[in-house]
Amino acid sequence: MEIKVIYYKTSEMKTKRKTIIEIKGRSKSMKIVTDHVAYAKRDQVMPLHPENLFFIEQIDERKMKNASVLDIGIGCGVLSIAAGRFFDAKHVTGLEINSRAITFVGYNILQNGLEDCIEIKEGNLEEIFKPVTGKTFDYIIANPPFEPTPHGFNYYMHSAAGVYGTDILEKILKEISDYMAPNGYAQIACYGVGNHKGPIILQKLLADSCGNKKLVVNQLPVAYPLFMQRFAALGVTAEELRDINKKANNEGITHIWLCMLHYQHGKQQLIITPSQTIYQKWDIPLDSAVPMGCKSR
Questions:
Q1: Which of 284, 281, 288, 297 is nearest to 19 (CA)?
Q2: What pLDDT, on the 0 to 100 scale, is given for residue 297?
Q3: Which of 43, 50, 68, 109 could form a disulfide with 282 if both were Cys (CB 3.0 to 4.6 A apart)?
């Protein structure tokens, strides 16, 4: 699937710190309004990143067509709207804990004419699947918080996920099979910490979990210390960063990889494969030259 991204920026939008992005594919298009990186409060609605395009390109169109879909952490709604516009999903239930994001996604659903296809439920950070207890879905999609984050740091709601970025992923994996239909399928975006060879920590986590899994890895990692350096501009001290990087290095962690997990019922196994597209600068928003929360110097 070929995707073309178009940006709409006006002085008014810049003042209000919003960005409009149009995504084109399959002779169709969708428009998404989300926060610009300049809106740096904790309830920021996540700006679009290369991971969103990676996700859309990785969707299994045969399994998505006419599917009942659960979107964990719907955010601005880009993945749910893509599911409805590009892949003909039957119905999408989106979970979200951020009230600001719920406002944005409601607007985006309406402007894309999918109010009969997508519904929103208030999410639960501690019990991820509680809002849909007793239900199962044909296709579960998730772009959850997965950014490695210093312990105790009051970071963005859409990104904070523990020092190695796996806190939310682990919660999802514990219960996901219970909410998948017999022939259900799941797709989850994530960061994988590891070394220069690959996301070894994430691989171990997945290898020890049930289900048939395929991990697609973008073949362009970012050095772990370089990634964590962004927190220096946000108040994390040099000493704290040294301790974080030292601990990581002692555990063999030197790099971070952008990954896409595909999951279904079946024999416990893990297949690892490189992505066909190599995504550049995947740790910064599509409409920004700097990481979220960092200031240009």
A1: 288
A2: 32
A3: 50
Give the per-residue pLDDT at 11: 45
Q: Which helix (H) or strand (E) holds 181?
A: strand 180-194
The helix/strand/coil state of 28 is strand
Tell me if 147 sits within 8 A of 190, measured CB to CB.
Answer: no
Report the pLDDT value the prediction gives residue 87, as an integer from 0 to 100: 96
Q: Angle 50-58/78-85 helices, nearest 10 degrees?
A: 30
Those residues of the chain that have pLDDT short of 50 are 10-12, 14-15, 295-297
* CATH architecture of the domain covering 4-274: 3-Layer(aba) Sandwich (3.40)
DSSP state of 147: B
Strands 255-264 and 180-194: antiparallel
Report the pLDDT value the prediction gives residue 9, as an integer from 0 to 100: 58
Distance CA 29, CA 23 (A): 6
Q: For residues 80 and 64, is the Cβ–Cβ distance under 8 A?
A: no
203: DSSP letter = H
Other Cβ atoms within 10 Å of 293 Cβ, number: 15
Q: What is the DSSP string of 164-175?
A: TS-HHHHHHHHH
- Torsion, Cα 112 86 20 228, to 10 degrees, reads 130
Looking at residue 289, its pLDDT comes to 76
Give CA–CA dist 83/276, Å, rounded.
Answer: 21
Residues contacting residue 286 through CB under 8 Å, at least 6 positions apart: 5, 7, 21, 47, 48, 49, 50, 52, 53
Question: Please, what's the b/e burial string for 187-206 (b: 16 or more CB within 10 A of its CB; e: otherwise)?
Answer: bbbbbbbbbeebbbbbbebb
